[in-house]
Design a protein that fits this description.
Helices cover 42% and strands 17% of the residues. The protein is of the alpha+beta class and 155 residues long. The termini are far apart. It comes from Streptomyces virginiae (Streptomyces cinnamonensis).
Length: 155
């Protein structure tokens, strides 16, 4: 009887550990992803450009932004959210409650989970503000809907 109780206790502990590790696994990938700290300018074939949040040191746009971030990447995301998803938003580069709320709105409109965290899934789903300096015109497009190819600016 004691052996059975011990075995059940071990199985319960293993199940609890497996459950907690499974929960950690889904968030650890996002937590392990670097924070975006600036933006890269992409220019489409029609001459419109946009700023995409990037982790500059790694040269990657596989990065995240969340409440508490304070940098140029947040500013550029705020510009996109303000122009493409409406609503008043102070574009100050500080990821606060208003930015999180408007990002959740954009995520919901794009049909992805509205968690208020910008990452690769959000980058691929939302529309970005594309601007053409010479004409003063802008438009909102998903990155994949912009006239291809998109070219990263070296400026």
């Amino acid at each position: 009887m004691k052996r059975m109780q011990r075995t059940l206790a071990h199985l319960t502990a293993v199940a609890a550990l497996a459950t907690s590790l499974a929960g950690i696994g889904t968030t650890s990938a996002q937590a392990a992803m670097p924070a975006c700290n600036d933006s890269t300018v992409y220019i489409d074939r029609a001459g419109f450009y946009t700023h995409v949040p990037t982790q500059v040191n790694m040269g990657s746009n596989f990065c995240t932004l969340r409440k508490g971030a304070d940098n140029n990447a947040v500013y550029d995301l705020q510009q996109t959210l303000w122009y493409c998803y409406g609503g008043y938003l102070v574009t100050d580069g500080k990821f606060g409650p208003a930015t999180e709320t408007l990002l959740k709105k954009a995520q919901a409109q794009a049909g992805i989970p509205a968690d208020g965290v910008y990452g690769p899934q959000t980058r691929d789903a939302i529309k970005f503000r594309f601007w053409q300096w010479e004409t003063g015109t802008w438009r909102c497009l998903k990155l994949t809907d912009a006239p291809q190819p998109l070219t990263a600016s070296t400026n």
